[in-house]
C-alpha cells in the first residue's frame, strides 16, 4: 500500500515547539496560577465571610440582664427572670424587632463552657441572662434612644449592638483582602514580565529566521500570531498544572480553618460561583500569555526591523 503524502504541507517556519524557553514558561505559569488560585480563594472567602457577618451579626442585637444581688439565690434568680420577662415584653412592642428570645440555661452553659469548663451548673451561679434580638431587614434603630428606654424598663439591662468590635473585625478583614489583591496584581505583573522577557530573548535567538521571513513578505503580525498561539497553549497547560496543585491546598487550608472554634472563620466559604472563577484560571492564564506574547513580538519587531 502506497502512502500518499500531500503535495503541499504547511510547516512552522519558527522552531518554537522545541524551544527551551517553553519549559521555563510552563513552570512560571504553573507557579503563578497556583499562587493566584490560592490567593483568589482567600479573597472570595473573605468576601463571603463579610457578607455573612452583615446578614447575621449586623441584623441582631444582644441585651444582657445583670443578676440581682440577693443572699437568697432562689429569690435572686426569680427577680432576675422577672426583669428578663419585662425586657422581653418591651422589645415585642418595638416595630423594628422581628424576634426576641431569651437564651435558656443550656445555651448559656454552652457559651460559658470555654471559661468555666465542663460539669458546671450555672443555675447555682449569679449568671447574667442573655436576650437575642433579630432586627427586621432594613429597619433603622436609634441605639442611644433605645438604650435610654431600656434603662427605664430595667436598670439591670444593657445593650450591645456589636458595632464596636465588628467594625474592628471588618477593618481587619478589609486589610487582609487588600493584601491579597496586591498579591494577585503582583503575580500577574511578574508572570507578564516573564513572558515579555522570554519572548524578547526568543526573538533574538531566531532573528535570522525572522529576517528571512520578512524578505519573503511575511509581516510582523504573522510572526506575532505564531508566538501568541504557542504561548496560549503554554499558558493553558501551565494553568492546568497550577490548578491541580492549588485545589488540594485550598481544601487543606479550609480544613485547618474549620478547626478554629468560635464560628467566625467558619463563615468563610466558597460558593459555586467562586469555584467557577477558580476553575477558569487556566483559560485566564492562556489569554494573558497570548496577549502578552502578541504585543511583545509586535513591539519588539518594530524596533528590530
Topology (SSEs and partners):
Layout (H helix, E strand, L loop, with lengths): L20 H36 L3 E6 L7 H20 L4 E6 L2 H12 L12 E7 L7 H11 L3 E4 L2 H43 L1 H9 L4 H39 L13 H8 L1 H24 L1
Antiparallel strand pairs: 1-3, 1-4, 2-3
Helix pairs in contact: 1-5, 1-7, 5-9, 7-9
Mean pLDDT: 78
Q: Given the structure, what is the number of helices?
A: 9
The run of helices and strands is HEHEHEHEHHHHH
Strand content: 5-15%
Structural class, judged by helices and strands? alpha+beta
**How many β-strand runs?**
4
Physical arrangement of strands within the biggest beta sheet: 2-3-1-4
N- and C-termini, Cα separation? 49 Å
Would you mind describing this structure in some detail?
The chain has about 300 residues and is α+β, with helices and mostly antiparallel strands. It has two domains: about 20-55 and about 165-305, no CATH class; about 60-160, 2-Layer Sandwich (Alpha-Beta Plaits). Helices cover about 65% and strands about 10% of the residues. The protein contains nine helices and four strands. The protein has helices spanning about 20-55, 75-90, 105-115, 145-155, 165-205, 205-215, 220-260, 270-280, 280-305; strands spanning about 60-65, 95-100, 130-135, 155-160. The protein has a four-stranded antiparallel β-sheet, with helices on one face. Helix 1 (about 20-55) runs antiparallel to helix 5 (about 165-205), helix 1 (about 20-55) packs across helix 7 (about 220-260) and helix 5 crosses helix 9. The relative contact order is 0.18.
Amino acid at each position: 500500500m502506497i502512502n500518499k503524502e500531500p503535495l503541499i504541507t504547511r510547516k512552522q517556519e519558527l522552531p518554537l515547539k522545541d524551544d527551551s524557553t517553553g519549559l521555563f514558561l510552563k513552570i512560571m505559569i504553573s507557579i503563578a496560577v497556583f499562587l493566584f488560585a490560592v490567593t483568589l480563594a482567600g479573597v472570595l472567602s473573605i468576601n463571603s465571610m463579610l457578607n455573612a457577618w452583615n446578614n447575621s451579626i449586623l441584623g441582631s442585637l444582644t441585651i444582657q440582664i445583670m443578676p440581682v444581688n440577693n443572699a437568697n439565690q432562689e429569690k435572686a434568680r426569680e427577680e432576675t427572670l422577672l426583669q428578663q420577662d419585662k425586657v422581653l415584653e418591651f422589645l415585642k412592642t418595638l416595630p423594628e424587632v422581628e424576634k426576641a428570645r431569651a437564651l435558656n440555661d443550656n445555651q448559656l452553659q454552652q457559651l460559658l463552657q470555654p471559661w468555666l469548663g465542663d460539669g458546671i451548673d450555672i443555675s447555682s451561679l449569679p449568671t447574667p441572662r442573655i436576650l437575642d434580638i433579630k432586627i427586621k431587614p432594613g429597619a433603622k434603630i436609634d441605639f442611644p434612644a433605645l438604650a435610654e428606654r431600656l434603662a427605664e424598663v430595667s436598670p439591670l439591662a444593657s445593650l450591645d449592638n456589636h458595632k464596636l468590635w465588628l467594625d474592628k473585625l471588618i477593618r481587619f478583614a478589609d486589610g487582609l483582602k487588600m493584601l491579597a489583591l496586591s498579591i494577585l496584581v503582583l503575580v500577574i505583573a511578574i508572570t507578564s514580565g516573564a513572558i515579555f522577557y522570554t519572548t524578547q530573548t526568543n526573538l533574538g535567538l531566531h532573528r535570522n529566521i525572522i529576517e528571512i521571513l520578512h524578505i519573503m513578505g511575511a509581516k510582523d503580525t504573522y510572526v506575532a500570531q505564531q508566538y501568541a498561539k504557542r504561548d496560549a497553549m503554554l499558558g493553558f497547560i501551565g494553568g492546568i498544572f497550577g490548578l491541580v496543585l492549588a485545589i488540594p491546598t485550598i481544601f487543606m487550608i479550609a480544613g485547618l480553618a474549620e478547626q478554629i472554634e468560635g464560628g467566625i472563620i467558619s463563615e468563610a466559604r466558597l460558593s459555586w460561583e467562586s469555584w467557577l472563577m477558580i476553575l477558569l484560571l487556566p483559560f485566564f492564564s492562556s489569554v494573558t500569555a497570548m496577549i502578552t506574547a502578541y504585543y511583545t513580538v509586535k513591539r519588539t519587531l518594530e524596533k528590530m526591523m
